[in-house]
């Protein structure tokens, strides 16, 4: 109602053929459309033959909101190269704070066991040596 009461000198005039109005404008509803990445609210309409004239109010708030939404969506989908680079830097930084521990040493016992592990020793290890009973007397 406020927009409808505005003077025509304060409005933007857009003239289209009826075909252009159908093809080039993205309608949100009967009184609002998007044209060249800007939203317009229609205050008055005049049809002359095969052309249409719209007296419009440019909806700057909605234009700003649409740009913010598009930016958020592209960032969320990873389409923004700068956001993708920042994301990579962030995770590289976190990885530098918490390095993965790499086990570079083995205990001596495990190392010797691996080196001495042969089929021959595996077979004879199982036999075992039992002590003499009773123990021998010395002296």
Mean pLDDT: 76
Give the fraction of residues assigned to helices: 40-55%
* Largest β-sheet summary: 5 strands, antiparallel
Overall geometric form: rod-shaped
N-to-C CA distance: 123 Å
Number of helices: 5
- The ordered H/E elements are EHEEEEHHHH
Oligomer: single chain
What fraction of residues sit in β-strands?
Answer: 15-25%
Strand order of the largest sheet: 1-5-4-3-2
> How would you classify the helix and strand content by structural class?
alpha+beta
**What's the total count of β strands?**
5
Fold and architecture overview:
This protein has about 140 residues and is α+β, with helices and mostly antiparallel strands. Among the domains are: about 5-60, no CATH class; about 65-95. Helices cover about 40% and strands about 25% of the residues. The protein has a 5-stranded antiparallel beta sheet.
């Amino acid at each position: 109602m406020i927009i409808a009461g505005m003077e025509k000198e304060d409005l933007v005039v857009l003239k289209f053929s009826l075909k252009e109005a159908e093809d080039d404008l993205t309608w949100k509803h009967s009184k609002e459309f998007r044209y060249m990445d800007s939203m317009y609210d229609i205050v008055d309409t005049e049809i002359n033959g095969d052309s249409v004239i719209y007296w419009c109010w440019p909806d700057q708030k909605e234009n700003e909101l649409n740009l913010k939404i598009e930016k958020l969506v592209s960032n969320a989908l990873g389409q923004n190269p700068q956001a993708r680079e920042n994301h990579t830097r962030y995770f590289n930084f976190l990885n530098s704070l918490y390095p993965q521990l790499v086990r570079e040493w083995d205990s001596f016992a495990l190392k010797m066991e691996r080196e001495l592990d042969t089929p021959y020793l595996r077979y004879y290890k199982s036999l075992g040596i039992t002590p003499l009973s009773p123990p021998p007397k010395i002296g």
